[in-house]
Design goal:
The protein has helices at about 10-15, 30-80, 80-100, 105-110, 110-130, and strands at about 135, 150-155, 165-170, 175, 180, 185-190. The chain has about 190 residues and is of the alpha+beta class. It folds into 2 domains: about 20-70; about 80-190, Head domain of nucleotide exchange factor GrpE (Nucleotide Exchange Factor Grpe, Chain A, domain 2, Roll). The strands form 2 sheets. It has a 3-stranded antiparallel sheet. Strands 2-6-3 form a 3-stranded mixed sheet, with no helix packed on it. A hairpin with a 2-residue loop joins strand 4 (about 175) and strand 5. The termini are far apart.
Length: about 190
């Protein structure tokens, strides 16, 4: 047992808290007790260091999970409209085809001028809404074929363009932020036969 007659250092007492009683004998075999006490303290210090490491690893893992969830939440927010945007692209395609199909004679006709202006304004507004949500059109014509953004539908013999250059766009391609929403369907130049 602990000798209560001897004055004790409070720091030493703090270190002894939690040490099992069998290591704190009455001092009869003081040399053996000191060794046992030293071993017990060393074991406690090792356990404390191991516990500190476990806590640090747990904190790091928690931080990693928090960051990953935050990133996933941001991506979900940024790309939530992807399905809807794909569906609206066909409406945008039809509107573009309608505006392009209006002959010049009808554009000048006073009876049709209001309709043409309305269709063009609607097209501009749709493109503005797309841009506001990070949906942008992929540039194609005159650029080299990029398999990450373009889908080559056919090859066209051309002496005017380098082989592999996009010479015609059959359907516009679109990006949503930095992701491909729809690849552009294009015709690519090839060497003439």
């Amino acid at each position: 047992m602990i000798d209560n007659d001897k004055p004790r250092d409070s720091a030493a007492e703090d270190e002894l808290k939690g040490v099992p009683e069998e290591f704190l004998d009455d001092g009869e075999a003081e040399g053996g007790a000191d060794d046992a006490l030293g071993e017990a303290l060393a074991a406690l210090r090792r356990d404390l260091e191991a516990a500190k490491q476990d806590v640090l690893y747990a904190q790091a893992e928690t931080q990693n999970v928090r960051r990953r969830l935050e990133r996933e939440k941001d991506e979900a927010r940024a790309y939530a409209a992807t399905g809807f945007a794909r569906d609206v692209l066909s409406v945008a395609d039809n509107l573009t085809r309608a505006v392009q199909a209006i002959p010049e004679s009808l554009r000048e006709d006073d009876k049709m001028k209001g309709l043409v202006i309305g269709l063009e304004a609607t097209q501009r507004e749709l493109e503005k809404v797309f841009a506001g949500h990070g949906i942008t059109r992929i540039a194609s014509i005159g650029l080299p074929l990029d398999p990450n953004q373009h889908q080559a539908m056919l090859e066209v013999p051309s002496a005017d363009h380098e082989p592999g250059t996009v010479v015609q766009e059959m359907q516009a391609g679109w990006m949503i932020k930095d992701r491909l929403l729809r690849a552009a369907m294009v015709a690519v130049a090839k060497k003439p036969d």
